[in-house]
Write a structure and sequence with these properties.
Elements (H helix, E strand, L loop, with lengths): L1 H25 L8 E2 L6 H9 L4 H12 L3 H17 L2 H9 L4 H16 L4 H6 L2 H10 L5 H12 L4 H14 L4 H10 L8 H14 L9 H12 L6 H16 L9 H13 L3 H11 L2 E2 L1 H4 L6 H19 L21
Parallel strand pairs: 1-2
Length: 345
């Protein structure tokens, strides 16, 4: 009897997947349309020009973000340009040779060299050598918080004390109290992996989320703390605290349009947390909201093939949700945690 019931449940689950999986797939772009870390319309031309050893579009883009105090965009663009320069830096060398004190060129150079030093076996020693370069970037653009975000990452790698960290943090928030990148850098320093604890990390993230502006990506900072906890698999944080972090990030995601590249990384992070908490229907909804914008973070931390892992997770949760939908007509208005009712009818 037990075996018969087990077989019956398996057959029903298979029938549900066959019936409902195609409908759930239709709500999302096909695999071939999903790309990793797609640049936005402002950054893409700068990257194309950089590939041709022309720094002018990148220089104009970063100068615009500096003049308009677009600190969040500036941070993203600097990071992406430095990532590009990691393997193709002729355009950056040309830029620095013509304008060696340009604050934007210095910032990209600082970001690039910090990344290279982080990957060195002699990380701390290499990073310490970069102090003057980071100082030069900060001095060249006194209002800019991005050099201080780089300084916070630098401090983490050089084993800087909490006193040094707090001094750098004060400089960062003085320039931009709600800068997401600086908050992420601080969160990493305070994590259990580095110089804090899971509790300290959560406390910082939750307080920052409470203090920030509506719609700010800092609202997702507790979800990053939850991710660090889930990835480590050690320590004790109440499950309700992790779920509350996910709830806050779900609410933030709902404030942005579907397939919007701006919150894409936050949505990718949120998907991972929801999947680990077995909140499958909500994870599938976030995959729908992500659209074609897969991001390296967090998938590079759990797989050597981040895009493949993203697509695998998306396909797996789609089938899992399909398995839970009744074979009969879907009844609207009963959506809830862990159920798909009403979400995709």
């Amino acid at each position: 009897m037990v075996r018969t019931m087990s077989m019956l449940r398996a057959l029903i689950g298979t029938a549900r997947m066959v019936r409902h999986a195609p409908r759930l797939s239709a709500a999302m772009p096909p695999d071939d349309d999903v790309l990793l870390d797609v640049p936005d319309q402002r950054l893409a031309p700068a990257l194309v020009a950089a590939a041709l050893a022309d720094p002018e579009p990148a220089a104009k883009l970063l100068a615009t973000t500096r003049d308009a105090a677009e600190w969040e965009n500036r941070d993203r663009y600097v990071t992406r340009l430095a990532t590009f320069a990691y393997s193709r830096d002729a355009w950056l060398a040309h830029w620095l040779s013509t304008t060696p004190r340009d604050p934007d060129a210095l910032l990209v150079k600082a970001q690039l060299e910090v990344r290279r030093a982080w990957e060195s076996p002699a990380r701390a020693e290499r990073l310490r050598e970069l102090g003057p370069l980071i100082d030069a970037a900060a001095e060249a653009a006194p209002r800019d918080p991005v050099p201080w975000r780089i300084a916070l990452d630098h401090a983490r790698g050089t084993h800087a004390s909490h006193t040094v960290f707090e001094s750098l943090w004060e400089q960062a928030v003085r320039r931009s109290p709600h800068h997401y990148g600086c908050h992420v850098a601080a969160l990493k320093y305070l994590s259990a992996q580095w110089y804090g604890s899971h509790r300290e990390c959560f406390d910082f993230a939750e307080q920052a989320a409470e203090d920030t502006l509506p719609g700010s990506l800092i609202q997702a900072l507790p979800a990053r703390a939850a991710f660090a906890q889930l990835l480590a698999g050690t320590g004790h944080v109440r499950e309700d605290r992790i779920d509350a972090a996910a709830d806050r990030a779900v609410a933030l995601s709902a404030e942005y349009p579907t397939a919007d590249p701006w919150p894409a990384e936050v949505r990718n992070l949120l998907v991972y947390v929801l999947l680990r908490r077995r909140r499958d229907a909500e994870a599938l909804e976030q995959f729908r909201r992500i659209g074609p914008y897969a991001t390296s973070f967090p998938w590079t931390l759990v797989s050597e093939d981040p895009l493949g892992r993203f697509l695998e997770a998306r396909d797996g949760v789609r089938l899992e949700v399909a398995r839970t939908i009744p074979l009969g007509p879907v009844r609207r208005g009963r959506a809830g945690r862990g159920r798909a009712d009403g979400h995709y009818a």
